[in-house]
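Quick start: what a row looks like.
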Amino acid sequence: MPARTSGRVIGIVAVVIVGGVSVCGAQQPTLDIVVDRLGAYLVDYETKVFQLAADERYDQWVRRLPGYGGEIVGRRKLESIFFLVRLPDSHSWHGLRDVSRVDGTAVTRPDRSMEAVLSERTIDAVEQGLAMARANAKYNIGAAYRTINVPLQTLELLHPQHRSQFQFTAAGQARVAGQQVWQVDFAELKKPSIITDGFGGDILARGRVWVAPLTGAVLRTELRVGGPTSAFQYPASITVEYRRDERLQLLLPSELEETYTFNIEVLHGRASYRNYRRFETSGRVVTPK
């Protein structure tokens, strides 16, 4: 399932502020104010989350549904460098997976690494990196060819540029990582959709974001796509947890979990992200001191 490549590019499927109000006080912000703060946060976020690399460890497995035995029928372990990059002079960011090992075995790499390509920071370099990432999608286990299994996918959908595409609904409050946050549901209403099935079919996105009401900061996202009425008839969900990186002073993806439910089996994935660092135009990944 890729995202449409016209206009703002969403991941690779195929992403205050106003005067504060005390959470404990009598007056609470409205849903519109919280969504405005979320949008302002994402506009600022995209200026900071670029030229980043992280170590990704990604476990995938396929389990039969209980009525068909319930056993695990396949496993896959990927080790990759995950890149977060932005197009030059653009608001779009991309999450690109460069797989280095599959089930412990090193994969054959191209003459130039993705890191070296992306360090050029040109439009052509990003397009070449996207092509390399799409090729790496072949290492995913299971029946679903997918490239939406990247952690910033939902943030791209929620960018204010797409606000008119979605309906937002307040869904209560919760605590995430010790913080009191709002739960805001979102549902894509308009076609053409941002995510497609890879053949031009529309896949309307929906889900939930856990957002700090005073700052718009995102601590968790859940993206749901597919279902009987969708171009992709099998329901899928992707949940991402965000934790503050003390070196970079940013909330960055720490965990991703995904499920895809088919006729007789469920595909699961769990990825973790560690050791975030910026990489330079020389092609050398550097770790902040």
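That is the whole record. Residues 31-42+59-76+144-278 form one domain. The first strand starts at residue 52 and ends at 64.
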